[in-house]
Amino acid sequence: MGALKPDLIDEVMGALKEMNIEVPTDIQCIGVPAVMERKSVVLGSHTGSGKTLAYLLPIVQKMREDEASLGKITKPRRPRTIALCPTRELSEQVYRVPKSVSHHARFRSILVSGGSRIRPHEDSLNNAIDMVVGTPGSFLQHVEEGNIVYGDIAYLVLDEADTMFDRGFGPDIRKFLAPLKQRALKTNDQGFQTVLVTATMTTAVQKLVDEEFQGIEHLRTSALHKKIANARHDFVKLSGSEDKLEALLQVNCIIKILIFEEVLEPSCAVDHYLSENQVSTVNYHGEVPAEQRVDNLKKFKDEEGDCPTLVCTDLAARGLDLDVDHVIMFDFPKNSIDYLHRTGRTARMGAKGKVTSLISRKDQMLAARIDEAMRNNESLEALTNDNILSIESREVSLQDCRIALLKSGGGAATVREKKGTACTSFFLFLHKKRFCFCY
Description:
CATH class of the largest domain: Alpha Beta
Strand order of the largest sheet: 4-6-3-7-8-1-9
Distance between the termini: 47 Å
Strand content: 5-15%
Number of strands: 15
Structural class: alpha/beta
InterPro entries: DEAD/DEAH_box_helicase_dom (IPR011545), DEAD/DEAH_RhlB (IPR044742), Helicase_ATP-bd (IPR014001), Helicase_C-like (IPR001650), P-loop_NTPase (IPR027417)
Protein name: (rape) hypothetical protein
CATH architecture of the largest domain: 3-Layer(aba) Sandwich
Domain Helicase C-terminal: 244-389
Pfam family, one: DEAD
GO molecular function, one term: helicase activity
CATH topology of the largest domain: Rossmann fold
């Protein structure tokens, strides 16, 4: 971290030394100086690239500077930094980072998250606190019960911001922001700095972010929306008669395995099939109670444990640091963004990994386009089953249009003359159909 030494105080550098972190990642080189300058930013970088430290280190330092220059002191129920995460598991993962840094930089953080009891949180909040990490719902519950007060909040972090805005957290986020924005209108109020963290950013989500946080600056690394460099990607095409479960057993052969399903029923079937074939598994999906999910993750991550295979839905695809050797997609995702999030569970922080996708006939076109984009080192941002099917259908229909015109006796000149009207009408029909379908 020598490149960041002029920006970071000795206490923060000491924490990095204890973590054996010596060289900053790309997002840390971009993010730390920007947050130090009190800019509100979106930090976009691939999974496992060190985004948590990219915002945490400068925020911790700015809190220390606020203490010295503005006389800010730590108070009960009045945190200065809020970090919101979409799930309890991700909140716990993020929380471990400030806990590690606090041993050197001397600040106090607590965790409030869904699925756990309120009373212990309430007792902790009655002590002096600097940072609260948790889920939006839990945070708002504590605000309503008077356990957390907005008055001193100076730094706001939304981790996995794309998930927050894409998966139904919008109302909670706006409810949380309303008092902060109202407070910022008051004379002499210092306002608050916002940091959004994401591994993907679609055009639709970016529009929502820009509307909610006007003037926010987007900082991205060149690897955003591209394949993970150290992961091998294999696409296994299945014939109509080939048994998908048998194919899964063929590729399930490395130490730490993560198997993704789209829905719960196949997840249960896969879990049962693997158990029958002497493969120890644990489950991770929305029907598993929160406490059990935490226990299952611990069993899976235990190096000496006997559960090397985690069977899961996309609930495990975003943010979690699982140190997986092999990601298997039993069900292929419907878009490239989910593909990126799933593959991001392996090959993290420079490690090597493998991704195997079982490709049914309905997924072959999307898989081929993703494979092609990765081979050409192109962005995977906009690829979905729907738009690829629309493109393929349009190409086939345009060819049919040309053939029909030729058969009618128009010849090449007639095709050129009539092609514009016929093709334009077909494109508009597809556009409207796709828009209505997506809506």
